[in-house]
Amino acid sequence: MIKKISAGIKAYFGAFGLISKLKLWKYFAVPMGISLITAIAIFTSAYGLSDNIGSFISRIWIWDWGKETFATISSFIGGLIVLIIGLILFKHIIMALSAPFMSPVSEKIEAHLTGTQPHSNRDTSFMQQLWRGIRINLRNLMMELVLTIPILILKFIPIVNIFSTILLFLMQAYYAGFGNMDYTLERHFTYRDSIQFVRKHKGVTIGNGIVFLLLLFVPVIGVILVLPLSVTAASVKTVETLNLDNKLQHVV
Hints:
mainly alpha; 10 helices; 80% helix
């Protein structure tokens, strides 16, 4: 697992050069705009809600002793909840709306890596690609929110909250990587088969998602470059993994 996560991360090292080599920047213009506008809208709204959520949580503590301490903790937890939900919404919105623009990028990368036109089991239109992106990301959004709630509850338990933070980060990374890889998988698999493929190769998926999330913490530049770099890295590793799986099947 660690080795595969590392492989997913290392794919980013050549992403910038590959984008320039294949002249792919023009394909990222609209997605970068979507990313920037979505980030401004979500995080501006989230900033105004953090104090309200912290105040609501602090009402749970009905005793006078320790009330100030709990209020401080509640403010931190409120801000954290807003940040986490903001990240969840941001990544799924931009990945869903960018699907029709990212599929051609993934296709060109696959053609470059294989030296042939990419094999496609599915001839899809712009709207079908958009719907596929929305469907995958709505599914992942629901799964992520369901899993996030119990993890957030663990944050109130000392020591355990350290491990819950790591678990929360890796879970978000998994679903971010999932969305990035599906731009390639869309040409090869149905909706359900793509889910099975990602589960089978969760290490590479998490590795891609880890850098995706870290880029979002880089002010402005990170939000703009997150899709070009993460989609390029995901496309490279997904094509490599697909080819390896096909070779193994032929051996068997």
